[in-house]
Design a protein that fits this description.
The complex is a heterodimer of chains A (535) and B (333). Chain A is α+β, with helices and mostly antiparallel strands and 535 residues long. Helix content of chain A is 32%, strand content 21%. Chain A has 16 helices and 19 strands. In chain A, strands 13-14-15-6-16-5-17 form a seven-stranded mixed β-sheet, sandwiched between helices. Chain A has a six-stranded mixed β-sheet with strand order 2-1-3-18-4-19. Chain A has a four-stranded antiparallel β-sheet with strand order 9-10-12-11, covered by helices on one side. In chain A, helix 4 packs antiparallel against helix 5, helix 5 packs antiparallel against helix 6 and helix 14 runs antiparallel to helix 16. The longest helix of chain A is centred in the N-terminal third of the chain and has 25 residues. The relative contact order of chain A is 0.18. In chain B, helix 5 packs across helix 9 and helix 7 crosses helix 9. Chain B contains 13 helices and no strands. Chain B is globular. With 333 residues, chain B is mainly alpha-helical. The chains are: A alpha+beta (535), B mainly alpha (333). Chains A and B meet through helix 3, strand 15 and helix 12 of A and helix 2, helix 5, helix 7 and helix 12 of B.
């Protein structure tokens, strides 16, 4: 009997303590509503986020801990882009960006300028608009002095980080693995897979390199695609007027030997390399340059030319001065234009004869450029691209006889293929496979800072996230250090702002958002929402 | 017999109509094709113009009518992503799937029947116990798991067989059709054939495991039942050897239900090819369909489904006809 009484007492005590603490804890919540938000995520691994929807789940879990109701919706990549970019759904959406030309303009203006909200591709997924930022970014496009430009880009990022239109998540390291007997391959910050100087021992008298990746190219016409898988074969087949130096985003002459910029920054004159021939035997000259740019100019570009307006949107006209001199006139001074011309997509020069001759089959069955490798066959049935060497390549003939670019959809299967020796080179390496690849003596594992950023954008133009306080609250509620460490296992670096470390434009003094649950709860309550400290 | 076949062929029409209606409805309710085709740069006017030109503004039954009319003429439309004709793309992939499925079916049937017979004849022997437990494991193991285990043992640990793919691409083997194994034999390219066999063993065995187990168990139980029948006792009483009794008298009757199972397994193997092809990087209809679904490329999904269901229905018909050969008591009229 006494025992029972004691238990009853303990029970009452428990109930009273529970009610008491809930009352105290809930004090700040009286009369407040719950914050209910939708979170949209893609389910396919992306280069800047190989764990796909696990990232969204981890972040949602942290938000749920302080009492935010998060409804996660998942889509395959294409449908995801349709829902978010075209239909404008989702309060919190996940995206990432792989830089094209190494210029901060390519990150900041592309992703956060007001003009990109309803621009060509709805790239500003946060619908972020800040006049001060716009001004800084647009001024930096005209300045030619690197130090002055850097200053603008750092200032712009300081404002952006304070405004919190994004949760800045991480920069993924670029990772490529090859068989140990593959030599001469170096990573480039842009992810450029330069196979021109790559070599491997001959088998049966031939040097054939098999490169495996996650999915097939969309098009081999450089004007059309915007995906990395099309980029890889395209950069083997074509050249641009300007190229990158190995290992940096500094530029060097490509198909143009040299160039001049007019004083007002509007006219660029390119002096072309002589004696270069396209793979179909037709000569490379000023007409070909004009043709390649003209077809992507505003008004002439077809809607499927993904990069046309980014690369050539400011070009007013292209004039052939003589067979080896081209004059490009811009509508306004734009310093990153030269960096744009080094890009692997949109900028490369195509054979005008081949484009006209092949019509609908151009880019699908045929692709003709001046690059180190010639397209032999694109077998759509088996998703395999066969390239053979261009023995008369102007920058030195490649060492390999043939390059076969094939698809192995599953990351782990692809890593296994490399370890077992079925392929010579792979990319798209899952964090879970890194240790295994690093530990295998038959494999060379290369990794370097990637020119990318992964982020979660808040829809800043409508409730609830048009309130900066709520955005700020949530940035402090997520333990990103832990998430990046656990999910990516050392294959990515936590982001402090937009630009990745080691690149021009990196804001080295900007501190990443702190993980501070108390602050998050305080801010959320101030914004008029319920919030609980996690137990 | 021929009227029966004709009637069965006629019955294919409503079946395929049903399949096509389901596929078509799924296609129409899944997103706006204009967005997928034009991408995100398109203006509203461009999208509207495309909808108009594709007839997407017509009532759904008109659209279905057009779709059916084109499909009857062999035109399944173009892939939204690559803009290649769907029929071309699906047919280019189909031989790869057929070869994989056929090899899996041969493995499943031969090993399954042999194991089943031995188990039945030596009922309750250690072989019987071991093989029936093995069959149970085969039936209950998911393909993808088995596939990964095979890869990790035979490709990664032992290094006997390749991890994935159809053929070593560096061999320069350039067949005219997707029936690589048949092509290699036709071209007398023994190097390629050896490589092709190496590539097909793991996916085919992983794919066959379920059917193998099922066929073995089915053969065993069916044969056990037949052996106990009077006519078998009579055969033994006549003084026939045990081998003749089992193989010539009992087995023929015992195999009738097995044929049904094997026939139905073909459908299972076709659908199982989706997983197997994904794991083993096999360039067949299965991986094409997975890709198409991931890219929301609906005409392509539709093409894959229509083709596979057509084959499935045909195989069922062939199985029904085979009964008559196995059992003269069955007559179709």
């Amino acid at each position: 009997m006494r025992n029972l009484k004691r238990w009853r007492l303990i029970l009452w005590l428990v109930i009273v303590t529970f009610l008491g603490t809930s009352l105290v804890a809930g004090c700040g919540n009286i009369g407040k509503k719950e914050l209910t938000v939708s979170m949209y995520t893609y389910t396919n691994p992306r280069p800047y986020n190989p764990v796909a929807d696990q990232l969204a789940e981890a972040i949602a879990a942290d938000l749920t801990k302080i009492g935010v109701k998060v409804a996660i919706k998942k889509f395959p990549w294409k449908e995801y882009k349709d829902a978010v970019q075209n239909k404008g759904e989702g309060d919190m959406v996940f995206f990432g960006w792989i830089g094209d030309n190494g210029d901060p303009d390519n990150f900041l203006y592309m992703l956060l300028d007001t003009k990109q909200i309803s621009g060509t591709a709805n790239m500003n997924s946060a619908h972020y608009s800040n006049k001060d930022v716009d001004k800084l970014l647009e001024e930096a496009q005209i300045l030619t002095d690197p130090a002055a430009r850097l200053d603008k880009y750092v200032k712009a990022q300081e404002i952006i980080v304070k405004d919190a239109p994004w949760l800045f998540i991480s920069h993924t390291n670029d990772m490529v693995a090859t068989r140990a007997d593959v030599t001469g391959f170096k990573l480039h910050p842009t992810g450029w897979i330069d196979l021109n100087k790559v070599d491997k021992p001959a088998k049966n008298g031939k040097k054939i390199l098999v490169y495996s990746r996650g999915s097939d190219a969309v098009s081999l016409d450089p004007a059309i695609p915007d995906d990395g898988e099309s980029f890889k074969p395209i950069i083997q087949i074509y050249d641009g007027l300007i190229k990158y130096k190995p290992g940096t985003t500094d530029i060097r002459p490509g198909l143009a030997d040299k160039w001049e910029t007019s004083k007002d920054g509007l006219v660029y004159t390119f002096y072309l390399k002589k004696g270069v021939k396209f793979h179909d035997g037709t000569p490379f000259n000023a007409e070909a340059v004009k043709f390649s740019i003209d077809r992507q100019l505003p008004g002439k570009a077809t809607p499927d030319m993904a990069y046309a307006s980014f690369t050539f949107g400011l070009v007013k006209q292209v004039d052939v001065v003589d067979p080896y001199t081209v004059k490009v006139t811009l509508t306004q001074p734009y310093t990153p234009f030269l960096a744009n011309l080094a890009m692997g997509l949109s900028a490369p020069i195509v054979s005008p004869t081949a484009v006209k001759k092949y019509g609908k089959d151009w880019g699908v069955k045929y692709a003709v450029g001046t690059g180190p490798f010639i397209l032999d066959k694109w077998d759509h049935g088996t998703q395999t691209i066969y390239l053979k060497k261009n023995p008369t390549y102007w920058d030195g003939a490649p060492l390999l006889d043939q390059v076969i670019i094939k698809v192995t959809a599953d990351n782990t299967v692809r890593a296994n293929e490399l370890i077992a020796g079925g392929v010579d080179m792979i990319d798209g390496i899952a964090p879970a496979d890194v240790a295994r690849l690093q530990g295998d003596k038959n494999v060379k594992f290369l990794s370097g800072a990637g020119m990318n950023v992964s982020y979660m954008a808040f829809r800043t133009d409508r409730p609830p996230f048009n309130n900066p306080k709520i955005r700020e609250a949530l940035t402090h509620a997520v333990n990103l250090d832990a998430i990046v460490k656990t999910l990516y296992k050392g294959t990515a670096t936590r982001a402090n702002a937009v630009m990745p470390p080691g690149f021009f434009g990196y804001a080295k003094d900007v501190k990443p958002y702190t993980y501070d649950v108390d602050l998050a709860v305080k801010l959320l309550r101030e914004a008029g929402y319920k919030a609980n400290k996690p137990k | 017999m021929s009227t029966y076949i004709a009637r069965r062929l006629l019955m294919l029409i409503p079946v395929m109509l049903g399949v096509s209606i389901v596929v078509f409805i799924v296609l129409t309710i899944t997103g706006d094709p204009a967005l997928v085709i034009l991408g995100q740069h398109a203006t509203a006017q461009q999208q509207e113009a495309l909808r108009q030109s594709l007839g997407l503004n017509d009532p759904i039954w008109t659209q279905y009518g057009h779709f059916l009319w084109r499909a009857l003429h062999g035109d399944l439309g173009r892939s939204w992503l690559t803009e290649t004709p769907v029929a071309e793309e699906v047919l280019a992939r189909f031989p790869h799937t057929i070869e994989l499925t056929m090899v899996a079916m041969v493995i499943a049937t031969i090993i399954g029947v042999i194991v089943g017979i031995i188990s039945a004849v030596r009922q309750y022997s250690w072989f019987d116990h071991v093989s029936m437990v093995g069959a149970l494991i085969g039936v209950s193991t998911p393909i993808f798991w088995l596939g990964l285990i095979f890869i990790s043992i035979f490709s990664m640990k032992l290094g006997w067989l390749p991890v994935a793919g159809r053929v070593d691409l560096t061999l320069g083997f350039e067949p005219k059709s997707g029936f690589y194994i048949l092509e290699a034999i036709r071209l007398h390219n023994w190097v390629a054939l050896k490589d092709l066999v190496k590539h097909i063993i793991l996916p085919a065995t992983a794919l066959a495991a379920y059917s193998m187990g099922l066929v073995a168990r089915m053969t065993r139980s069916s044969l056990l039942e037949t052996i106990r029948q009077d006519y078998v006792r009579t055969a033994r009483a006549k003084g026939l050897g045990e081998r003749v009794v089992v193989v010539k008298h009992a087995l023929k009757n015992a195999l009738i239900p097995v044929i049904t199972v094997v026939g139905l397994q073909f459908g299972y193997l076709l659908s199982g090819a989706v997983l197997t092809e994904t794991i083993f990087g096999w360039p067949g209809v299965g991986s094409l369909a997975v890709n198409a679904v991931q890219n929301a490329d609906m005409p392509l999904v539709e093409g894959c489904v229509l083709l596979v269901s057509l084959v499935f229905v045909f195989v069922n018909l062939v199985v029904d006809l085979l009964y008559a050969f196995a059992d003269p008591r069955i007559r179709y009229s």
